[in-house]
Structure formats: C-alpha cells, structure tokens
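Minutes, project check-in
Item: structure for the 1486-residue chain
Input as provided by the requester:
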Amino acid sequence: MSDQPPKINGRVAAGGPIRASAAAASAVPIGELHPREIADALWLAAHHPEIAARTDDQDVLTEHTAAAGRPRQTPAPAPAEQKAPPPRFPRRPADQDPLAPHSDRKTHPDDGRPGHAGGDRRPTEPDPLPLIPLTDDLTDLTDLGDPGSLHPIRALHPQHGPPLPQLTRALRPLRRPAPTSRAPQVDPDATAERLAVDPGLPPAMRPGPGPRWHAVLLLDVAPRMAVWRDTTEHAARLFRQYGGFGDFRLLHLDTSRPDSASVHWPGTAHPVSPKRLLDPGGRTLVLVLTDGLAPAWQSGAVQAHLASWGRHQPTAVLSVVPQHLWYRTALHRLERVRLRASGDRPGPGSWEYAEPTGRTPAHRADTVVPVLELSEEWLLPWTTFLTGTGPRWTEVAALLLPRTSRRPAASVRQPREKSAAERVALFRVWASADTFQLATRLATAPLDLPVMTALQRRTLPRTGPEHLAEFLMSDLVTSDPADDGYFSFHPGVREEVLAASSRHATELATKVVAELLAPHSAAAREMLAYLDGATASKPKVTEEDRHFREIECVVLRSLSGAHARRARLIGQLIRAHEESTQQMSESTRGERPIAPHTESYGIVTEPNTSEAPVLAERLGHADTGTSPGDATMVTAYPDTGSRQEITLSRPAPLSTVRPLVWGNMPPRNLVFTGREDLLQRLERELRGGPTAVLPHALHGLGGVGKSQLAQEYVYRQAGQYDIVWWIPAERPTQIAQALVELAHRLHLPVSSEAITAVPAVLEALRTGNPYSKWLLVFDNAESPEAVQEFFPSSSENSSGGSIIITSRNPQWNTLARPLEVDVFERAESMQLLQRRNPDLSDEEADQLAHVLGDLPLAVEQASAWRAETGMPAAEYLRLFAEKRAELMTVSRPTHYEQTVATAWNVSLDHLASKNPAALQLLQICAYFAPEPIARSLFSGAPVQPIAPDLDRALTDPLRLARAIREINRYSLAKIDHRNNSIQMHRLVQAVLIARMTEEQQQRMRHGAHLLLAANAPRDPRDPDHWSRFGDLYPHVVESGAIDSEVGNVRQLVINTADYLYYWGDHESAREFGQKAYERWREQYGESDQQTLLLCRSLWYVLWRMGRYGEAAALSQRMLAAVQALGSDAEEELLSTMGSVAVDRRSHGDFRGALDIAREVHERAVRAYGEEDPLTLDHTHNLAVALRACGHYREALDLDEETWRRNVVIYGEEAYDTLLSEMGLALDRREAGDYALGARMFEEIVDKYRNVFGEMNPHTLRALARLAVSRRKAGDHQAAYDLSLQASKALTDRYGERSPDSLVASLSLSIDLRQLNNLDDALKLGERTRDLYAEVFGAQHPDSVAADIDLAITLRLVNQVEDARALNENALERAVRALGEDHPTVLVCAANLASDRYAQGDAAGALELDQRTLERIKTTLGDSHPTAFALMNNIASDLRALRRTEEAEAMHLAAVQGLGDRLGAAHPACTDAEAWRRSNCDADPMP
C-alpha cells in the first residue's frame, strides 16, 4: 500500500505523529476564527506574553532544570527522513497493529515504548509528560549529574488532567460556518423591495452564518471505563467548552448489559431513545468515547446503534485504549478503508478497501464507522475530511456494519472453564512487561479502583491508565455489576499471580496497601504493625474486614517463611467465622440442621401435584430425584412415637434424560396405577403414526384417565425425544398459543404473533431442524378437523416425530390410530385405593371399587377423601348410598354420571360444612374452562360482591390459601404449584353446577365474569399483555362472558376480540367478534355504546382481512345507528363517517372518500380543536385521502403538524406517532424528495423493529414502503432485497390475495424489471395484475396502477402493441376514476407516449409528452423528478424528429434537473445522459 498521505482540498492531511505537520494541517485562517478567540489571543499576547510565545515543542520543565543549575537542553532537530509526510492514519509496528496477526503481543523493555532510550515515540502518544530523572530512593535532583545521560520517564508530581490540549486543534476544521436560521440577518435587497411597497413593513431576514455542525458525545459508563474517568471527564470538558458547535449534548451510554445498550442523561436514570440522536440532515456528529470492552460491545448491541446513526450522519468511535490493545476489545474487527467525498454535503459518501488484495468487493449498503484514538493525530484527518468542499479522500480504521446487522448468536457449546494457571499463563503471553508487573502489585490489594490507582502511583509510577486498563481487560479479573469501580480475581488467580512476583516486590506492595487502607481499617492498621515488626495483637476476623483478611492470608502464604504461621492462623479464623455466620443464619431462619438418621422416611412431593405427599420407602435412586416432572425429594424426621411400618411399591422409573425442549407438561401423577398393557400398546401404535387416546364407547364423557395415560407415557419415554410439548387442544386459539411458546423455545426468528410463529414451528418440526425427534401431545382435542391443520406434515427428516391426541370424540379413524381406554380393572382400583389407604382390607377395597364402578376419576377422589378423613369404609359406603338416593330423586342420570356425581357429593358436602369459602371457590371455577386457572385471578377483588365467605377469602390472602389447601386435601381439583394454578375436570364442574340452585348458578357465573374483568389487562395491542390475554381467553369463552350485562365485562369482551386480531389469529377474532356483536345487537340494539365499539372493532378486522364488502355493509349499519342517536353522539358519528370514507377508498372512490374525510376533519376541528387526539386521528385520515388523490403538498402540511403534535402527546415511538411519521415520509417521497424519503423510512423501519419486532405486520408494511423509497432513490439492488423480504413475509402471513401482499408483489415486479430481470418481472407482474382485478375489480385505481407497471415490462420485452393497448385502456379507466390531473393518470400518459415512440410515432409521442408535461408541472411542480423525466423523453422525441438544437437544449435541462434533484449517480440521471427514455412507475398509495 502506498504511504502517500490523502489529499484534502489539495493539501496533505495530517495523520501521523509529527507535530509540525499536524500543526500545519490544523492551521486555521483568521477569517475562520471566532471573534471571541481573536479577543482571547490578543489579551493573552498583551498580559501573558510568556504563554503566547511558548511553542508546542518547548519543554514544560524549564523551571526544574533551571533550579538544578543546568542549562535547558534544546531538542536536536529531527532527521531528514522524519520530515516526510505522515501516514494516512497512525500506524503501528506489525506486532502492535490490530489488523496484523498478533501471535506475540508481549512488549520488551527495549521495544520502542515511551520511557525507554532509543525507542521511537509511538504515533498516538500525546505531548511528552514532564520529564525528570528518577532513582529508586528519590535522590535529590542536584546530585544526578548531566540529565542528558538519563532516561526520560513520567513525572512523579500529580497530574491535573490527561494531556489532551491538542484535541481542540483537531476540532478547528468544524468551525467553518454555514447559513442557519438560528442566526438570521437582514436581507438588504429584499428589505429595500419591501420598504418600497410599504415603509411600515418589517425588514426581511435571511439565514446568517452560524455553526455548521452539532455534536453528541456519548460517554461509555461501563464498569471498566472507570479506569479512564480522568481522561473522559477532561475530554468531555474540552468538547463542552469548544465553541464551534451549534448544539452540544453530553450523554451516557450504558453498555454493561449484553442484551442492550441504553442512552441516558448524565446523573439520571432517565432514558433517551437512541433514535432521538438521528439527524436526517446529517449535521450532527455522534462521537462515542469508549474502551470497547463491555458486554454490549461484545454482543453487538452497540454496533446496531452505530449502524443506525452512521447511515444518517457522521459517526465515530473514540477509543481511550491505545491501538495496540484494540485486538483485546470488541473493536478488533476493523478494516482499513478509504473514504471519498465531493462537495460539502454531510453524507457518508463512498468508500473502498485501502488494501483490496484478497478482499471481497465492498458492499455499498455497509455503514462505515471510523474508530479513532483520542488524539489530534487521529481525529484531525477525519474532521478535515468532513469539512472539505471539493473532491477528497482519507483513510481510516473503521467498523463495517451491515444495514440489517444481527447480533451474534450465543454459542450453544460453552467454552471450557480455564484454570487459574492457564489464565495467568495466557496473560503473560500478550500483556506488556509493565502491565504484568502491575498485576503482581495489584494482587496484594482489594481490586477497588481508588486503591488500585493509588497503589499503581506508589509502586509503578512509570505506568499509566493504559496499563491498568490492559490489566482489567484481561481474563484474570471480573467486574462487580453492583459497583462500577470494584473488580475481583477469578478463583485461584491471585495466588498464581503472586507466585510469579518477587518476594521484595510483594512485601513492598503489601505494605503500601496497608498504609493506604490503615486510616479506615483496623485490620489494615494491625497488619501494618505486623509488617513493621511491632508486637501485634492476635488478629480478629469480622464481617467488615473478612475480605481484607482473605487477601492478607493469600499474600502471607505466598511470602511463606516467617509469614506462614500467621497465614495459617488467619485462615483458621476465617473458617471459624464462616461457620459461626452460617449457624447463626440457620438459627435465625428457624431451620433445623439435617443429621443422618437410619430410620428416616422419604417423602416424595411434587410442588405441582394435587395429591398429598405420598409416603414411600427411603429412595436413593435416580428415578426419585429431580425428574422431567421437576419432582423434589424432601427428608422428614420420624415422630418420637411409634409408627406403623408401611411398605409401598416404588413408582415406575422415570426417564433419566430430560429432553432438550420440554414444556407445558402437567405434573406427574405420583399415584399412577396399572395401565401397563395400555402403555405398551401406546408405544407400539406410535410407531405407525399419530395415535388418538379415546374413552371406551361406554364412557364417552371422559374421566377414564386418557390424559393421565398420556402423561405417564411421556414421563417414562421422555428420554427418547429431543422435544416434548404438551398442547391444550380444546380450542384452536389454545393450540396456536402453545405452538407460539414452542417457537420461542426453539429460538426461531419469529415474533409472538400466531400468524407467523405457528407456520414457522410446524416447518421446523417437519424438516427436523433443529431437532428431528419430537413428541406433541394434543390434549382434549374436540375433533380431527379442529387440530389437523396444526399437525406437521410428513417429511424424510421428521421420521422421529410422534403425535398423541387425547379426545372424547371417537371419530378419529381417518387421522389417527385409536387406542381406547376403559375403566380400571378391579385389581387396579383396589391397588389405587390401598396405596393411600393401606389399612383397607382387600374386602373393603373391593366393596368400594364396586360401588365406584372402577371409574378412575371416582376411585382417585374417594381414595384421597378417605386418606384425609380416615372415615371407616362402612361409613363411606353408607354416605355414598344416601347421596345416590338423593341424586336419583332429582333426575335419572346414567350409571356413569350417577357414580361420578355421588362420589363428589360426599366430598363437597363435607367441604361445605368445613370451609364454605373453599366450596364457593370451586363453584366459581365450575364456570371456567377445564384449563389451568391462574391463582392470581383470585388476587384481584371484583368491584361487586359475589358471596360473603368467598368475598372475605378474595380480600384475605390467608383465607384464600386455606381454601385452596382444603381443595387440594380432598383432591377436588389439581393444584399446580409450578405454575401456581388450579385445574378442574369437566365432570367435576358438571357435578358442581348440577348441585347449585338456579340463583346460585347465576351468582357464581356472574362472579366468574367479575373476576375475569378485574384481572384482565387493559391494552390488547401491547405484546407484553398477549400471554395474559391468552390465559384468560378460554375462560372468557367458557364462562359465557359475552352474555354479561356488566360494563367492564363487556369491555373485556371487546379487548379479547382486539387481542385475537393483534396477536395474529384473525379468523378467531372475526368469529368471536361476530358472535358477540350479533348477541349484543339482539340484546341491546345497534345504538348501544359498547355494541358500537365492538362493531367498529369487527369492521376493522373485516377490512384488514380484505373482506371489503362485509366491512362496508357493517359501516353503513353503524352510520345509520349513530345518526339515529342525534347530536349527543357527535364523536361516534365522526368515527363512523371516517370508517365509511375508508370503505369508499377501498372500493376505488378516492374523490368521494376525500369529500367525507374533509367534512369529518372540519367538524372535528370545530368540535374539539386542532390538538385533540380525536382530531389528530381524523387529520391523519384526511392526509391519507389527500395523498390517494395526489395532493401531496397539502397532505405534507397536515402530516407534519400531526406528527409534531403526536410526538408531544404520545412520544416518538407510539403507534399513532409512527403512522403520522410514515405518512410524512410518503409525502416527502411523492413530492419528489426521494433521498430524504428513503432516509426517513430507514429510521421508521428501525423504530417499528424496536417497538413491534422484525416480523410484525406493521414492520413488514413499513419495510415494503422502504423498498419503494430505495428504488426511487436509485438503490435498485437494496430495493429488490427489501421487496423480496417483505413480499415473502406478507404472503406467508396473509396469502397472496391480501392487499398488503399485493402491494409488496407489485413493488417486487418493478424491482425485477429495474434489475433487467424482465422474464421474472413479466410473470410476477401478470400474476399480480390478475390478483388485483380479482380482489378489487378492474376499475379500481390500484388495478389500473398494476396495468401501468405491467405495460412498461411488456414494452421492454418488445410486446409494444400489447403495452400500448394496455396503457390506453388503463388511461381511460384512470381518468374516469381519478380525473385528468391525478399523478397516476399523468404517469400512464407518459408511458403511453413512450409506447407511441417505440412504434415509430415520434410526433404523436411529442404531442402527448408536451401536453402531459404541462399538467405535471401544474400538479407536481416544475422541479419534480417526473417533470424532468418527461423533459428527457421530449428530448428524445425532438431528436427523432431531427429538431436537434431543441433536443440538445431540452436534454441538457433534463439531465441537469435530474442531477440536481436525484444526484449524478442516480440511474435515472445516467439513463438520461445516455439518451435513454424514462419510464414512470405507478405505486399504489397505502
């Protein structure tokens, strides 16, 4: 690579260490100095000539040398070879260059570092520190002889700040002024004209000269940056005091968390959105002052912000760490690049690799962020480059950040933990000699920053902050997240470091540490006395000084010899202190120390099971420890009294290997009994495909243990699978919710929306990526049709996948292999009864099983009841007979129903007398779905009373806990402690409802509704609330909440419908909303307030689904209902009229929609004022209607004001604000400012990604519009990439007939044509045109736009006649729908003229082009790019007609206009220069 420096405005740019060159390059003409600077300079020259006369090369220690009686040494002139121009940016030797291989980074004493004789000064070294000779014992300076024979080292006297004075010189180029409205001045000519008209008019003002640049300095405040606190504070002070910026802001950048990098104001926790730093005008510098070590740098979180800032404005990283250490930081992936620019635009310009050999070609979309040392030599070339006006270039070290960078994925394979010896050995390899010596000194001290700094100054004064930073960035230490200035060694490292130190150095450092800490620590004072040889008292260890004593023990042990005895004593005292502290802690908590006991019993409990603890023999095998069910083993001590010997069979072994992905599994039933034959049959059936576990034909209502059988199989066979996922399958929405959770567990790149996550997870299972062995359990599925769409399709890679379905529906023969489950065998019933009731005889157990009909659910409940109450079997049989007789007098249920109801009524009657609140809690739960009910649902007291006992329990956590314990004791419901939820079997629910009176049923159902409403989230659009809504949804449906008359319950219904839509389950949102709307319309009428709200929500869902006919009919019905309400419903009327306007626009009546939108807006302004949020909504809708009609300037004014007001009301990243900002970007783009529109959309898309996620539909729509903007800005490849991404995602989500999918497909076809892929463009264009006609109709303006774009492609593939016919037909339809002056009509006319030209009719083309140009100038303006495109076509027409002179003049004007508006490199401009005709695309307005 050439060593010639870059040229900037014809001058050699400073870039190296030679100060004379830097000063020359930084010389500022008098005209560019600020008046204040000139005044300061004159004052200094008059009052302090000694300061003004001092040169940069003067030695600042003249006083010291004069006092010593020695003449001041004059520096020798530099050799001739050193006067060569400096390199383009500071270089390092090969062993210090981060871009060169760094196999050996060790620094040797004679390696040329500052402070060693014979070594060249490093390029990045600031001006020399004061130099004084020094000996070990600080001998008097006068006795040292000739200073010329001494080696220069750093001064010992305190430094008042880092040596950064030259930094301000590097900023001087930024002082060049620019016209700004902040400094207006009188315009003499314009003022004279005004005064000639009316002498009373005020003077005319024009922008005056002012600062051209603003700046934001971001200080990294991660813990390790504390080392550089003096440097960063001094740099911040210099930037703040520098007067060349129009606006300067100092912010803190918190990079301590790997998942994010946050910006906030200094001294506060108030966050600042990183997007607020963006400046579309490119006049704000973003400078990040950092060491590049924190987790957010390592994860790429900071780089994502840098890429965003760097795309809009000059951005640079200022590293406090010297360049030779960059390879140890996250700044190691640097490239040498050459930046090029011309003119005074602040944009990024272009770049190329400085050393392209062996490189892949530079990617235009990558963002270049320079990385500079914090010095004049590095900063000056960059600032000079930024402020240049002519063609120029410079070279920098830079990060190359992709436009859509992704953070590096966490490694699945964790690296092996290094030993302490390995850590120290590696550190010695790469660390400098001084840094390693510093580490040996710091190993004697607590790693508190003030202590480390003071110890460094006392023991190794020649080292600086870069050496301390080198130590702290090593693998020897870790930072304390709770304290920015505290660090600690990894285990064993302190000992290893001390072992590498000399005894003398360790003793000296230890004494210094004791001296530093003695004023505040009695332990340090006692240690200092010991080191001084005084008779020290016996050391004591307290909690306050334990850490110091631990360090003392390690240090003394390393010194050994006479210190070994004291080290052993301190070690014993530390251990004794720890034991004492532990015992005191256990005593305080009331815990009993566990002692071994040969007769202890093992109690296996599972925190999420409904059963009471099961006594078992002492368990010590793998199958009784932590299992896939998360069972835990707790040791209990035997009672002092005698206890009957109990022997139980051990549960079946669990799989000892847990699947990699395991979720939603119910707790294992620890008293599962029998069913061995069914489990074996289930295993065999699964080998042949999906298997449905069904009840026997005689017991179709369930309760025979289908789910229990599936659970037991899963727990036994879990080790065979990589994925096991339990899916509640009663409703499609619940299935989708479970699959969304699975998608997140698989780390698939999808959002939380069902519409994208479900297809993604099914595809991952189908292809076996990332896991091919999986098991899905669809529990309690309603029908094959309801779940079939959620089955992964077969694939060669998914042969290891299995599906189990449990269902009460027997019709599964066509989809799954049925496995019928019957009641227990009598032996199984007896075994289950005796497991919990070992005192039952075989005869009693047989009698109980007989009356219970061997029904597993009834047997389990009766077993738990008797185990808890101890009731004799005969008494239970008598009660059972009485309850059965009572039941028979009320109704004649089936034998099965009778048995279940009788068994439960025995327990429920007892519960009613013992704890009425527990019974009422069960009665409430009877109206919820047979799904887990979060206990938190009962923590929010309803606004109305339900039942006295229950009301007290709901407001008293202790009463509520007691009620739940009672329910658990009698096995009346399953209590899952892991999920903190309650679940009831549907048969138990039926029994509870049947035994209540009608008044009780109404009261408890009403109570269920109140509890749901009291605990529901309020914002269904917030993704953070979707999980909670998903939990509540089945209970909202099952409880019949749509029948409630309570206002907040009805609001819950509306919010639930909205949640289903925003979550992505659009069909369920439509079905649920439609059902509720029909019910409310019939019950309350169409004019009811909440009926209207639900109707509007349903209308929006229908409209978004493309069901425009149904949506229009609904909006007309809403309008009639609201109009009937009269003047009291003005707000509802305006909103409904807005919906009608949207329907008009959807049907292609753009002008009719605009008329309605104008009326609505005017009425809203009169009624509520311009700044009311409701008015802002209508203002936004009016802007949309104006844009659809081609009135871009008027829409721009409205959108700009709306956006500004929304920012004030909602904030920058609120949904309403983003909508208005997107409208503003569209207005800018369609008004002809393509580059600005593209930059605005870049920022908007980033905001959508941050707020909604990558694959959210709002983000995808913004991405599609960004693609159009990139195309119009001339970046066709980037536009194609974005269109392809948006089109695929939207089509996968909504299908190809969705309006959003059609817009993205049309844009993609245009991008293909722009890239000259005409065959694919033609195919996609024809398909998209046909779909537009099917969905919207051939007369719709958007269908016309699709025809216009297709016609261009037809002409380019030489189907000119077809193109002309299509354009003529499209023009006729466009005029009829939009009028003659609409932009779409004008674009169509321009393309039709090109068709005529292609057919040889140049005269006809000229006549049409000239007529169209006049209308375009009237509609869009004289300087719109489309006007210049028409001028280019007219030039071609004239040239074909041999009117050469006119053609040349028109062509020159067109090329100049396109160049000014779009840039000389824009494809439209280069085509015009080559006399190629311009094609005008038609993009439907969203």
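Outcome recorded: Residues 826-914 form one domain.
No further action items on this chain.
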